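Priority: medium. Attachment 1 of 2:
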């Protein structure tokens, strides 16, 4: 059998990529929700904000998604999830093995793939290789109104290239331990009185509880989820158990939907808080 491969000229490849990419960028220049960080909390938040009907874009500084999930526990490819976060994984079709009542073990790669796939299927746009270097700020009343972004490759090269801004009704910091967006705001907009003090040492049960409880709108327009919460609340870290991350992402999505849509906001998450 002879296989005939469709011939595509180099210039046509370039035109297709540039044209279709620009269509996406023109669409996301002003959006409902910007999620920063494609770890467990960020991907979960993107799933449910998109599911609520909000135009959602997720920026990840690396060229891959998954955050801390990819390394599992000390590079062993398994992670732990506990009830009620298993409801999120059931909804996305991720296989789990229940070892004890309410305690599940999950394959790290499958959890990453299923969360990312579900976010895309829900309508979220995921853009890799983008770093947030600042926020869009408005006063009277003071609020965060979007993200200022740059290609990660430009940042890594140390080049001076002016960034671009993406307007948003809600900006969600899911950047993990470094709380990158909150750190920027704490330094550049002192009147918002945000302090990034850093997380405490490991105490897994307490950390899981406090991360979910602390998920909130930190200042008008800027929300914190996942380990970014620990960085501003000085909560403990929990290691390779990810139920709190999933629940934090789900909670922040519902908070954002409620704020933007008001009484019209649907309940889009599979758990109650």
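Attachment 2 of 2:
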């Amino acid at each position: 059998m002879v296989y005939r491969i469709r011939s595509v000229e180099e210039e046509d490849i370039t035109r297709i990529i540039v044209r279709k990419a620009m269509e996406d960028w023109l669409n996301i220049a002003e959006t409902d929700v910007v999620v920063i960080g494609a770890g467990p909390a960020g991907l979960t938040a993107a799933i449910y904000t998109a599911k609520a009907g909000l135009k959602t874009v997720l920026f990840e500084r690396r060229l891959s998604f998954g955050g801390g999930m990819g390394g599992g526990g000390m590079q062993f490819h398994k992670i732990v999830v506990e009830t009620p976060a298993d409801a999120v994984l059931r909804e996305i079709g991720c296989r789990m093995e229940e070892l004890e009542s309410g305690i599940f073990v999950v394959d790290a790669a499958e959890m990453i793939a299923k969360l990312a796939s579900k976010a895309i299927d829900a309508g979220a746009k995921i853009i890799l290789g983008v770093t947030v270097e600042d926020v869009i700020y408005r006063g009277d009343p003071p609020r965060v109104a979007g993200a200022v972004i740059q290609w990660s490759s430009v940042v890594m090269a140390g080049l001076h290239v002016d960034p671009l801004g993406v307007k948003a009704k809600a900006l969600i910091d899911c950047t993990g331990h470094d709380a990158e967006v909150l750190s920027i705001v704490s330094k550049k907009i002192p009147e918002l009185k945000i302090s990034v003090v850093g997380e405490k040492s490991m105490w897994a049960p307490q950390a899981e509880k406090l991360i979910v409880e602390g998920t909130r709108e930190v200042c008008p327009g800027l929300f914190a989820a996942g380990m970014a919460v620990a960085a501003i609340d000085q909560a403990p870290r929990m290691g390779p158990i990810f139920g709190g991350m999933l629940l934090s992402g789900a909670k922040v999505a519902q908070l954002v939907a409620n704020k933007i849509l008001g009484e019209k906001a649907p309940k889009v998450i599979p758990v109650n808080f």
